[in-house]
Design a protein that fits this description.
The protein is mainly alpha-helical. The protein has 16 helices and four strands. A four-stranded mixed sheet has the order 1-3-4-2, with helices on both faces.
Length: 347
């Protein structure tokens, strides 16, 4: 399922019926020829098909946005990728020491309170010694906190990002979403879930709203945002100043307007007029100033893999039952050669 193939797709590829593939899933032994064809199609080894998943992941455990348009097949495909990714991370972590996971204790806060979410975001900035200025790289930050980040390829745009709150938390983000500002907000959103929703089932409008508020407050602290937000020119937005503000804080124009409205710096009516202007101009996926912000890419796992000799990396993949090809295809992860770095990653 990780490649997104349905039973019908696999059946067609190997010249069998869907019912035959379903029987294989239930334990019926395929022919040697069919087995080889399936493994070749899915870029996996035989042991992948006959082993229990070491770390099964259910969608209910993940901080996964609940979308009615997200099909069961899509969900299963993404969950299968998450399981493979976690097996890779855990296997590599047996050889390489990753950064400790650093999460603040927010149990004293009431996450149903908007003000307490603001205070939670401020606490995180204090504990992580971030100050009140712009965060230069969200992905570098969360990786320093011990959270592994990856992107997945070939997934419908209906999937944004999700996080898995395991002992070694990780965030998976859809590579199809190209906006740098959206990437940063998605990472901050998932960080919000990991901070706020330990042991809480998410995906509903309430928890999604809480994660969005955390992301907004974390990326744009109210103290500094209120001081720097560009004043209106009469009754109009100063769009050139807003683009400059966007470039400095690395957040979208829509996120800026929403934040200004939530802090009472502009009226809800003025915010709606700003959103309408952006939509009318066609700035739904791309905005002015996007080209001024450098893209962010995960490096933690890639750096860990590069420390390993290639033969050890291949042995890890073989133990899981996957190939270099499928790992590169799904996650863009590729071994680039061993280095003489120490077996501890310093972020």
């Amino acid at each position: 399922m990780a490649k997104g193939f349905s039973l019908e797709d696999i059946a067609t590829a190997i010249g069998k019926t869907r019912q035959s593939i379903s029987l294989y899933e239930k334990g019926m032994q395929p022919t040697e020829e069919a087995l080889d064809t399936i493994c070749s199609l899915l870029s996996i080894e035989r042991n992948f098909l006959f082993s229990q998943r070491a770390y099964p992941i259910e969608a209910e455990v993940c901080h996964f946005r609940s979308l009615r348009s997200r099909t069961q097949t899509m969900t299963k495909s993404v969950m299968a990728r998450a399981e493979i990714f976690e097996e890779v991370v855990r296997s590599v972590e047996r050889e390489i020491v990753f950064p400790d996971v650093v999460m603040p204790d927010v149990s004293a806060f009431d996450i149903s309170s908007v003000n307490d979410i603001e205070r939670t975001a401020e606490l995180c900035r204090r504990e992580w010694e971030l100050g009140l200025g712009p965060i230069s790289s969200m992905v570098n930050l969360v990786e320093k906190l011990g959270i592994v980040v990856t992107t997945i390829r070939g997934v419908d745009e209906k999937v944004d990002a999700f996080s898995v709150p395991h002992q070694r938390p990780f965030i998976i983000r859809n590579d199809a979403k190209k906006s740098v500002c959206r990437f940063r907000f998605d990472i901050a959103h998932e960080l919000g879930h990991l901070v706020l929703h330990d042991g809480i089932t998410t995906g509903d409008t309430i928890t999604e709203g809480q994660a969005n508020r955390f992301a907004s407050a974390f990326l744009m602290p109210r103290a500094s945002f209120s001081k720097e937000f560009p004043a209106l020119r009469g009754r109009q937005f100063d769009w050139s100043k807003l683009v400059e503000f966007k470039s400095r804080w690395k957040v979208s124009l829509k996120a800026i307007i929403y934040r200004a409205s939530s802090l009472g710096l502009i009226t809800p009516e003025k915010a709606r007029s700003g959103f309408l202007f952006l939509n009318t101009k066609g700035y739904t996926k791309e905005e002015p100033g996007d080209d001024l912000i450098v893209a962010e890419k995960p490096t933690l796992l890639n750096r860990a893999i590069e420390v390993l000799p290639h033969r050890e990396w291949l042995a890890i993949l073989a133990s899981i039952g996957v190939t270099e090809e499928i790992i590169n295809e799904l996650f863009g992860i590729k071994h680039l050669g061993a280095t003489k770095s120490p077996l501890r990653l310093v972020m």
